[in-house]
């Protein structure tokens, strides 16, 4: 567990702070995550996903619990659903960002500019001084590598 704390606590704190908007609550959330992980160590199955993915799933639940405690809204069911959606979106964006970091610079640029931003491949090719077919090839292999990176991270919802 000590190795996991050293490896992931910084990233987890950043994620929790963005989700909760409060440094103290984020620290508490990360601490609670590792307590829950320690108690549930026997349930961790590396065949289902990485330790990192497992810890972030626990953190997601801790953040949802912390947010529920902070917001006493009469329409709790609607609020809970909205909060969960926001946290899911934040987690999804973090995972995709992390997967994009694993791509080569050329592949990442093609995926972000052409696939995500909708920029024409010909425009990017002209800017970089390479044939349009090169950009399309980078896009193809970049998307393939992105899918592989997401799979390696244990993500199945992207």
What does this protein structure show overall?
With 158 residues, the chain is mainly alpha-helical. It has two domains: 1-95, RNA polymerase sigma factor, region 2, helix turn helix motif (Rna Polymerase Sigma Factor, Chain: A), CATH 1.10.1740.10; 102-158, Winged helix-like DNA-binding domain superfamily/Winged helix DNA-binding domain (Arc Repressor Mutant, subunit A). The chain is built from seven helices and no strands. It has helices at 2-20, 23-39, 51-70, 76-101, 105-116, 121-128, 132-152. Helix 1 (2-20) packs across helix 2, helix 1 runs parallel beside helix 3 and helix 3 (51-70) packs antiparallel against helix 4. The chain is elongated. The two termini are 28 Å apart. The relative contact order is 0.10.
Q: How many domain regions?
A: 2
Which CATH class of the largest domain? Answer: Mainly Alpha
How far is the N terminus from the C terminus? Answer: 28 Å
- What global shape is seen? elongated
- Enumerate how many helices there are, as a single number: 7
> Sheet with the most strands?
none
Kindly state the mean pLDDT as a whole number? Answer: 85
The CATH topology of the largest domain corresponds to Rna Polymerase Sigma Factor, Chain: A
Share of residues in strands: under 5%
Give me the Rg, rounded.
19 Å
- What ranges have pLDDT less than 50 throughout 5 or more consecutive residues? none
């Amino acid at each position: 567990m000590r190795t996991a704390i050293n490896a992931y606590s910084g990233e987890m704190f950043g994620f929790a702070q963005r989700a909760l908007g409060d440094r103290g609550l984020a620290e508490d959330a990360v601490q609670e995550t590792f307590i829950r992980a320690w108690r549930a160590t026997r349930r961790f199955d590396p065949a289902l996903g990485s330790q990192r993915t497992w810890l972030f799933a626990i953190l997601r639940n801790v953040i949802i619990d912390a947010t529920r405690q902070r917001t006493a809204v009469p329409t709790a069911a609607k609020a809970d659903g909205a909060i969960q959606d926001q946290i899911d979106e934040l987690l999804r964006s973090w995972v995709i960002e992390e997967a994009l970091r694993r791509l080569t610079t050329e592949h990442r640029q093609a995926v972000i500019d052409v696939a995500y931003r909708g920029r024409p491949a010909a425009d990017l090719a002209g800017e970089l001084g390479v044939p349009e077919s090169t950009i399309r090839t980078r896009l193809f292999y970049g998307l393939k590598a992105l899918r592989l990176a997401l799979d390696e991270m244990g993500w199945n919802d992207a």
